[in-house]
Amino acid sequence: MKMIYITCNVSVKERVMDQLELCGVRDFQILDHAEVKNKLGVPRYDTEIWPGFNVVFMMQVSEVEKVEMVIQQLRRFNKEMAFNETELLTVCSWPLAEYFFD
């Protein structure tokens, strides 16, 4: 089981949700209004000087094949679907030792 973390410009939020749906990911959390400074582009602090902000997606995925499919689809998004560097996704994953919902 892995945790997948995605952060992206709010402008691509719906498109990322579409990609997750294509991969069969039904359970995820969205943390809205994340202020960021990435190595590409300008900061997004949701101010008059630095407008914009990010959203964060987090999901727990137990199937190895689905993890690989999600990562592959998100890489494809960055290569083929992002219009410019401000729409690139930052993605990482790590193993989960425990996960329960009871």
Give a written overview of the molecule.
The protein is an alpha+beta fold and 102 residues long. It has one domain (2-95): 2-Layer Sandwich (Alpha-Beta Plaits). 27% of the residues lie in helices and 27% in strands. It is built from two helices and four strands, in the order E-H-E-E-H-E. The protein has helices at residues 13-22, 64-81; strands at residues 2-9, 29-34, 54-61, 90-95. A four-stranded antiparallel beta sheet has the order 2-3-1-4. The longest helix has 18 residues, at 64-81. The two termini are 17 Å apart.
**Strand runs, count:** 4
Structural class: alpha+beta
Number of domains: 1
Unreliable sequence segments: none
Radius of gyration: 14 Å
Mean pLDDT: 96
- Please give the order of strands in the largest beta sheet: 2-3-1-4
CATH hierarchy: architecture = 2-Layer Sandwich
Give the C-level CATH assignment.
Alpha Beta
* Main beta-sheet annotation: 4 strands, antiparallel
Q: Number of DSSP helices?
A: 2
Strand content: 25-35%
From the N-terminal CA to the C-terminal CA, the straight-line distance is 17 Å
Q: Which overall shape is indicated by the principal axes computed on the Cα atoms?
A: globular
**What's the CATH topology name?**
Alpha-Beta Plaits
Order of helices and strands: EHEEHE
Helicity level: 25-40%
